[in-house]
Amino acid sequence: MKFLSIAFAALLGLASFGASAAEANLKTVAAVYQNKAALAGKTVSVKGKVVKVNNGIMDRNFVHVQDGTGGEGSNNLVVTSKQTANVGDQVAISGKVVVNRDFGSGYSYPLLIEEARITVKK
């Protein structure tokens, strides 16, 4: 049994060795909120569930992603993208962290992930 545990651990190590750069930057929604100042201008990746979608606003789609982390005010990540997804989809997103984005007309966001690449997980 101990041998199987060692073999399994070795396999996990090999699997993580082949991780992509996007996976290396994988963050939780809560972590993005907690570190938004340090992450501003950097590309991050997040996995989660789409809870709301507003398509075709100001030539972009607004996709809201949650992963079960964070509390009130820090559990919903707003993502802008040319791509979209459907409510209920499990997605992986990767985009640039932007803080204090004001589009005018009352559309102001303390935190956004902009120009994101959205991949729907099957």
Written overview of the protein:
The chain is of the alpha+beta class and 122 residues long. The chain has a single domain (24-121), classed as Beta Barrel (OB fold (Dihydrolipoamide Acetyltransferase, E2P)). It contains 4 helices and 6 strands, in the order ααβααβββββ. Strands 1, 2, 3, 4, 5 and 6 form a 6-stranded mixed β-sheet that branches. β2 and β3 (60-66) form a beta hairpin. The protein is globular, with a radius of gyration of 17 Å. Mean pLDDT is 86; it is low at 1-19.
> How many helices?
4
Sheet with the most strands, sense and barrel status: 6 strands, mixed
Shape: globular
Compressed to H and E, one letter per element, the order equals: HHEHHEEEEE
Predict the CATH topology: OB fold (Dihydrolipoamide Acetyltransferase, E2P)
CATH architecture: Beta Barrel
**Domain count:** 1
Strand content: over 45%
| Helical amount | 10-25%
Summarize this structure briefly.
Helix content is 25%, strand content 48%.
Looking at this protein, list some descriptive labels.
single chain, alpha+beta, 6-stranded mixed β-sheet, about 120 residues, about 25% helix, OB fold (Dihydrolipoamide Acetyltransferase, E2P), disordered N terminus
